[in-house]
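# step 3/5: fold
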Amino acid sequence: MSGQRNISGRAIRGTIRRRLLVNAVVDPDEAASRLPSGLRPHVTALGTVVGCCLLEVDSIRPAFVPAFAGVTLRAVAHRISVEWDDGSEGVAIGVFVPMRQTDSPLAVALGGRWFPGAHERARVEVSASDGQLRWMADPRGPDGYRVRVEASIPSQGALSTEVEPVAATCVSADVGLSPDHRGVLEGARMEPDHRRLREVVIDDLESGFLSSFATAQVAPSYLMADVGVTWTRAMAPRFMSADVLA
């Protein structure tokens, strides 16, 4: 947990219909080469967790707007588990997100401006049937990562996050740090109304982000579903990060 307070009254709410966390572990030194100054890899017993967070969110809207007026958003966040000094002699744990992609024009327009989280445009398709989940994201522009996932979902069983280090890292990382449109780090805190995970089997995977890590090894992947969430702005180390995106 980051231990950092919210620095703005501005908030966004929504319901995560599905959140698929596709994970790998990499050598911490390789992860460090992707990070801006001030951040360092968060290291578990298996290595540093990297992954793709695929989100399908219903009724997303500013907190003061009623749910019926919200919109649906589908997005992919490419993530590296990190930690940093929080300024009060503590260590914050979160994720560094070098890129987000979405099919929502509103998220593209407002992300990294009105609220933390710059997004690139992408075509995103999601389908689910008979215990199978298929997810595809294609970038609309010259930049971005293609993602294609097919996963099998067990019919029952949740996970205690204290048992498995990858799951514990996924769940405890409340704050996401990402560059705004000027390349300056900004933070967003995710506050879910529950943290229940279900392990899934990845049957097929194509990820330009994960395959870009030479040391990547397959790690457990998880699904969260039907989660009410509030996102608020959070404090972030004030370092330029455009250099790691080149």
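# step 4/5: annotate
Confidence is low (pLDDT under 50) at residues 1-6, 240-246.
# step 5/5: archive (pending)
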